[in-house]
Every structure is written in C-alpha cells, then in structure tokens.
Amino acid sequence: MANLFDRDDIALGIALPFGSGQSNFKLNYTTLDQARTNIINLLLTHKGERFMQPEFGTNLRRFLFRQNTESLADDIRDELLETIKFWLPFVKVDSIDIDRTVQNIEQYTLHVAITFSVTNDITKFATVTFNFSSAGGVSVGSGNV
Fold first, then answer.
1. Phi, psi dihedrals of residue 92, rounded to the nearest 5°
2. Which of 33, 65, 94, 125 could in theory staple to 28 by disulfide, Cβ–Cβ 3.0 to 4.6 A?
C-alpha cells in the first residue's frame, strides 16, 4: 500500500468551513489540516447529537452557563483532553488556553484555543480557536504555528 502522508495530490478529506475548490469544497491534503477539521467537527458536535453515536462530541456548550469558578478551566481542559484522546488518538495536544470573559451581566464569552500536532509529524503545530457567546453564536478560527 502506498504511503499517503507524503503525497500532495491525494486529498485526505474535506476542510471546514466549506468553500470553493475542485469540487465546490476545499480539500485537505495534509494530516495536520485534516486533524484540524476533525477537531472542529468533534468539538462543535454536542454529545447525543450524532445519530447512532451518542457519546461522540463534547459538552463544551454547557460550560458556557456554569459558574465562573477556579475549577471551570480545569473541567473544560479535562473534557477536551479526554474527548480528543478517545476519538482522535493520532492527535497530540500541546496546550489548551481557556479564557472566560464577562463583559456585563448579560454578555459573556468562552474562548478556547487548542494547539496540537499529529503523531506522524510532531514538528508542525496548528491551533484551533473556538469563541462561544452567551447569545448562542460560535466562531471558529485556525492557523499553523
């Protein structure tokens, strides 16, 4: 079987967010880019949302409405590490930065940034950031480190 990791002409999957490409979708050609898409898909899926796999996903949105205590960041970090380790064992998480900002009594955000690599190349890192707002919106950003 051919080694697909060193080929730039074979796509490994479809990138998120959807965009234009060869087939109206942007494609991922590296394992790191596909891992980024897999993390986005995993963390934006709420547990119980995926048909026939009720344990797939996280309870990340529930943390937005929890009390802002000292243990909140640790609880979020534990949830993310456990979920990524189970569903994406080829991903090595380097760091998870969590910031919970309260602008006023009715507006607050939860900012989570995950820096990671993949096990077949631990010299390259990527970051995915999630911004959850109390209004129900979620924005996702990403980049290479």
1. -110, 115
2. 33
Hey, what are 69's tokens? 């205590």
Structure tokens at 90: 């080829």
Write the pLDDT tens digit of every residue in 65-118.
777 777 888 888 999 999 999 999 989 999 998 887 766 666 677 788 888 988
Among 80, 64, 75, smallest CA distance to 138 is for: 64
Return d(Cα 44, Cα 33) in angstroms, integer.
Answer: 17
Q: What is the pTM of this model?
A: 0.75
Element (H, E) at 101: strand 91-104
Report the side by side order of strands in the sheet with 121-133. 91-104, 107-118, 121-133, 138-144
Q: Give the Cα separation of 39 and 80 in Å (integer).
A: 10
Task: Name 121's bridge partners.
Answer: 118
Q: Cα separation of 42 and 25, whole Å?
A: 19
